[in-house]
């Protein structure tokens, strides 16, 4: 009985350590004094981080990635919100159909979705325009805010809504003063999920605007092919840190286990 | 409170815009890609609107078939590893304290969301001669001299399993968190050790979710694009374009 406990704890921690190990190593190499790929690092130098934000070669892709991610997550939430609201407010086959449609893009491998957008925007003649990647990311990731918002709407205490309505509040007033404040954490978590994945997404971005814009994942991949620079490690560390930070914020402001489908205990 | 449908057609307005966006920017692009796959390919992205099956004929040529075969083998192995590691891990996770759960869920979400370029770079560093486990092995005296473990097929398997594992965990997490505690208690009362309870009760109970997750991880892995390129190098690369 004891043995089983020891074995399972050991297994859990080995998996955990292997999961974190790659990031410890890149954090280490990112502070190397010289332009070398060594771990443990030789010397200590934060200059590579400064390069990421000051060197135009790295700053431009960083800004491109951030702009795409902000626009795409806003758009995804704007598309998902009315669908989730409508399906909470009414029960119609049409509403269910649209929600089902919203769940589709995320089920197929992104390579397939990327190919679809590539052919589509080439046919339309908009290939390479900034807004195409924003639309492509928003559609590809709309499933995430749709799921978080649907969970959020389910959670609303309907007696509050009925109370406000019986006191004469109109549909718009109910939405603004009762529904929105209660749904806000789910709006934010939906936004965060899209933001993080869009920031890191490679294949759809490369197939829609790859010839015109360079995002940070593209920059890292291209730099990887032409040799090594510690700025790559610094960029990766910044991305890992912001990804973990954003998900931690989601966890802090909403119920992460529940958002991921755990039974509420 | 819940109505079956809006009172006036105007009530449908909020959902019409999202519906339009999804049709115009998902159904239509997807359809146009399927349509284009039947058009005559003139090379360099140009095409002629003539119905043909030649693109599919090229797909079953020996070259594409061998590429496809490697993709399927790798995806199969990775899905297997991801389930074998991910299932027990998730089972331990759902039984852990809430704080532990939240911590590892954040880690798993992060790994899953991170760009493959970053994961690939991190793994190629971890498997490199100068900054990776080679150094560790040398320091521990396991190997005479530090060596590099990437690029190789093993590196691809490790790297892709690394991103498939969190996917497995997030697929299984909602299912395993719904296990009634009574079930394990019952098997324990009947004298089974926790390990036996896990292998003889919990695993067989979840045959269906395991198979479904396996298929989903398999498809997910097939879509992995950058990692094989970074970790396999050119010769054994299984990039499909």
Report on the biggest sheet of chain A. Answer: none
The name of the CATH topology of the domain at 67-228 and 254-259 in chain A is: MetI-like fold
Q: Which percent bin holds the helix content of chain A?
A: over 70%
Total beta-strand segments of chain A: 0
Give a structural overview.
The complex is a heterodimer of chains A (265) and B (241). Chain A is built from 13 helices and no strands. Chain A is mainly α and 265 residues long. The longest helix of chain A has 34 residues, at 56-89. The two termini of chain A are 27 Å apart. Chain B has 241 residues and is mainly α. Chain B contains eleven helices and two strands. Chain B has helices spanning 13-36, 54-59, 62-94, 98-113, 116-126, 133-140, 153-176, 181-189, 194-205, 207-222, 226-232, and strands spanning 39-43, 46-51. Chain B has a two-stranded antiparallel sheet with strand order 1-2. At the A-B interface, α1, α3, α4, α5 and α6 of A face α1, α3, α4, α5 and α7 of B. Chain B: It is found in: Cell membrane. Chain B: The chain crosses the membrane at residues 12-39, 59-90, 102-123, 149-173, 210-231. Chain B: InterPro entries: MetI-like. Chain B: Its main location: membrane.
């Amino acid at each position: 009985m004891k043995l089983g406990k020891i074995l399972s704890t050991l297994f859990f921690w080995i998996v955990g350590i292997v999961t974190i190990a790659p990031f410890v190593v890149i954090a280490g190499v990112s502070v190397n004094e010289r332009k070398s790929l060594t771990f443990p690092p030789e010397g200590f130098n934060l200059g590579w981080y400064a390069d990421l934000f000051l060197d135009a070669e790295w700053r431009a892709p960083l800004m491109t990635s951030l702009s795409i991610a902000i626009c795409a997550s806003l758009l995804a939430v704007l598309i998902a919100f009315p669908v989730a609201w409508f399906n909470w407010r009414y029960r119609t086959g049409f509403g269910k159909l649209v929600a089902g449609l919203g769940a589709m893009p995320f089920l197929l491998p992104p390579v397939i979705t990327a190919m679809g957008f590539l052919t589509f925007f080439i046919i339309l003649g908009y290939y390479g325009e900034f807004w195409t990647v924003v639309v492509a990311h928003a559609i590809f990731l709309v499933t995430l805010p749709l799921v978080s918002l649907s969970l959020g709407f389910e959670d609303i205490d309907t007696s509050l809504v009925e109370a406000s309505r019986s006191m004469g509040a109109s549909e718009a007033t109910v939405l603004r003063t009762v529904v929105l404040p209660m749904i806000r954490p789910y709006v934010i978590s939906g936004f965060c999920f899209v933001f993080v994945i869009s920031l890191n997404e490679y294949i759809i971005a490369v197939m829609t605007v790859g010839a015109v814009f360079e995002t940070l994942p593209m920059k890292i991949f291209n730099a990887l092919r032409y040799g090594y620079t510690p700025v790559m490690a610094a960029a990766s560390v910044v991305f890992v840190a912001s990804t973990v930070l954003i998900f931690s914020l989601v966890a802090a402001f909403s119920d992460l286990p529940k958002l991921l489908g755990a039974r509420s205990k | 409170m819940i109505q079956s449908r809006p009172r006036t057609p105007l009530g449908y307005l909020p959902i019409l815009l999202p519906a339009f966006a999804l049709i115009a920017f998902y159904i239509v692009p997807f359809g146009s890609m399927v349509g284009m796959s039947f058009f005559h390919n003139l090379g360099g992205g140009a095409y002629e609107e003539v119905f043909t099956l030649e693109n599919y004929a090229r797909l079953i040529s020996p070259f594409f078939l061998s590429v496809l075969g490697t993709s399927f083998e790798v995806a199969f192995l990775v899905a297997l590893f991801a389930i074998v590691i991910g299932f027990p891990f998730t089972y331990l996770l759902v039984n852990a304290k809430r704080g532990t759960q939240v911590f590892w869920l954040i880690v798993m979400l992060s790994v899953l969301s991170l760009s493959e370029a970053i994961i690939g770079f991190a793994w190629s560093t971890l498997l490199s001669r100068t900054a990776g486990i080679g150094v560790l092995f040398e320091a521990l005296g396991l190997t005479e001299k530090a060596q590099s473990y990437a690029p190789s097929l093993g590196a691809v398997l490790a790297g892709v399993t690394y991103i498939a594992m969190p996917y497995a965990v997030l697929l299984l997490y909602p299912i395993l968190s719904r296990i009634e505690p009574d079930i394990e208690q019952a098997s324990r009362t009947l004298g089974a050790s926790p390990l036996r309870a896990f292998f003889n009760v919990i695993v067989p109970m979840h045959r269906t979710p395991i198979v479904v997750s396996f298929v989903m991880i398999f498809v997910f892995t097939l879509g992995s694009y950058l990692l094989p390129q970074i970790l396999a190098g050119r010769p054994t690369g299984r990039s499909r374009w």
